[in-house]
Amino acid sequence: MQIHTRRLPGQPAVPGAADDAGPWAELAPVIDGARRRAARDGDRQPDTAHLLHSLVEADPGVRAALGSRVVRVLGYLVQRSIGYGLRWRGSVEESGAPSGVRERGKGAEASRWSPSALAALDAAVGRARSRGDARVAGADLLAALAADSGCRAVEVLRRAGVDAEQLGARIGAV
């Protein structure tokens, strides 16, 4: 069952709302995968690490962008469910989320995502729009995740030996 939510003009759709198929059509498997992963891990909300995990599994371009570090990234992401991410359980991830996103994150549909994940999703939509595309691509979401130096996805990247700042710059140049 999908929930309809009302948005302010110009406010990007929150993945999961019935009317958001447009920008997220290409990444629907990533969005669904992040939700399933969060539920399976017993987490209250999908966060940036859930998004990164689904993105790496679903998007060959993202795997290529990570290069030889992709195996280490996946290793850390898999470990999350068996202990590595336990310290995150029960806490809300809101590292790079501006207060407006944190406030919006209290709504019915948006509360299903961590504030940091919402900020990354918003940034991915903005990145797609800035290049004149109505749909968000995997590279848009990866660049948005890499831009938040305090988020869980960047912590995973860092531990796997990926320089998130360089990754973001490399993706931005494409």
Automatic annotation (TrEMBL):
Ranges where the Clp R domain occurs: 29-158
Low complexity biased stretches: 9-22
Domain of life, per lineage: Bacteria
This protein's name: Peptidase
Gene3D superfamilies with a match to the protein in the record: Clp, N-terminal domain
InterPro entries with a match to the protein in the record: Clp_N_dom_sf, Clp_R_N
SUPFAM superfamilies for this protein: Double Clp-N motif
Region spans: Disordered: 1-22
Pfam families per the UniProt record, alphabetical: Clp_N (PF02861)
